[in-house]
Amino acid sequence: MVMIVGVIVLIAANIIVLSISNRRYQSYGPGRIAISLIAPFQEAVSRSIRFVKDIWVHYFFLVETATENDNYKKALSHAVERNNLYKELKLSNIRLRSLLDFQKTITDKVISAEVIGKDPSPWFKTIMINKGKDDGVKKGAAVVIPEGIVGQVAEVSAHNSKVLLIIDHNSAVDALVQRSRARGIIKGGFADRCVFKYVLRKKGIAVGDTVVSSGLDGVFLKGLPVGQVSGVVKPNSGIFQEVTVTPCVDFEKLEEVLVVLNPKKHKFQSEQ
Questions:
Q1: pTM of the full predicted structure?
Q2: How far, in whole angstroms, is CA 89 from its chain's centroid?
Q3: Using an 8 Å Cβ cutoff, are 261 and 137 in contact?
Q4: Quick check: 160 and 115 in contact, CB under 8 A?
């Protein structure tokens, strides 16, 4: 409002000065006095107008810069998203290649499946996969990955199956120590570990030994990795020693698995 009034006053003053200056027969004194009085005010108003103009120009410049900045951020976000997608596809390709290479070493017929869910209960260690009866999956089928044994199919529907992991307390895998050939049963323990039960006290077992499937349960092929011995306790009495095994499989990172479609024995372990 002040600027508008100033502009109006400036215009009025200019008109007065011009009218005074254009009077041919009027003395030059009043004109000069009017100009000297009006000039400072005119200069102040002009500077104010230029200041406001500069602010207005800078405002539009900042708005344009902010818009460009938003566009750059969106482009960067899309680039990061595409990069993450590329990384996921690359990792998935590596996992699938590993499964394919491992599949070539298995004589039985197998099918790949994707993990689509996990049991949220702390009491049960199971996963859901996206293959079922219509794909040839049967109850009791072995589930494996290149790193080792995952578990056994416990329930089957038309298009999905529930897999009991070897870290579940209901699971059981006949296994042996690769170095000393000491034999026992791998069962689910605690904190995603397993216990190697019924291992004779006289058998030699050391921390770091590799435990593999024995093939005697008729479910898992002989020689599949189960885990590494992480603890050995030999009681003063009794015929068995207490052995803890850390599985080779990282169950928190399971995404794809292989299901053996023609196991020799279609009986679920916990029902024995």
A1: 0.62
A2: 12
A3: yes
A4: no
Taking the C-alpha atoms of residue 269 and residue 272, their distance in angstroms, rounded to an integer, is: 6
| Spatial contact of 44 and 7, defined as CB atoms under 8 Å apart | no
- What is the three-class DSSP state of 217? coil
pLDDT for position 208: 95
Q: Where are the beta strands (DSSP E) in the chain?
A: 110-118, 126-129, 142-145, 148-156, 161-165, 172-177, 183-188, 194-200, 210-213, 225-233, 240-247, 256-260
Element holding 10 (H helix, E strand): helix 2-22
Per mean pLDDT, which of 94-103, 213-222, 260-269 is the most reliable? 213-222
d(CA 198, CA 176): 11
- Which residues lie below 8 Å from residue 260, measured CB to CB, with a gap of 6+? 106, 108, 109, 110, 141, 142, 143, 144, 221
Contact 226, 101 (CB under 8 A): no
DSSP conformational letter for 106 = -
Report yes or no: 164 and 148 within 8 Å, Cβ to Cβ.
no
Kindly report, residue by residue over 67-88, the tens digit of the pLDDT: 777 777 777 666 666 666 556 5
Bridge partner list, 210: 228
Amino acid at site 179: R
What angle (nearest 5°) sits at the alpha carbon of residue 44, between those of residues 39 and 48? 145
Pairwise CA distance, residues 2 & 209, whole Å: 90
From the centroid of its chain, how far is CA 104? 30
Q: Each residue of 22-71: pLDDT tens digit?
A: 444 444 455 555 556 556 655 666 666 776 666 766 666 677 777 777 77
